[in-house]
Amino acid sequence: VQLVESGGGLVQAGGSLTLSCAASGFTFEDYAIGWFRQAPGKGREGVSCISSSDGSTYYADSVKGRFTISRDNRKRTVYLQMNSLKAEDTAVYYCYFRQRQEDYWGQGTQVTVSS
Description:
This protein is mostly beta strands and 115 residues long. The chain has strands at residues 2-6, 9-12, 17-24, 33-38, 44-50, 57-59, 67-72, 77-82, 91-99, 102-105, 109-114. The termini are far apart.
């Protein structure tokens, strides 16, 4: 099982980035996938997730209206489109899923927003 994030980088406040999470080693279309983030000195927080079945989504209040999660089951990839980025969005972003009581995380991708 592997989750590999990409797409992070340095962007000015108000800018946009799209993160990708490429999955392998499991039946991708059967699982909800989530994005979490961890800012320096803070705990890991949930950002967004997308279901396996009907594509329903969840967003943390802090990103609602600015971030959009989507998935492409053929490419086994989940995306996080991030618009109107703020300095407080600076963090390492991780994708995540849970299978049979076991948690799987990617290695993370750094997003830095300069103000």
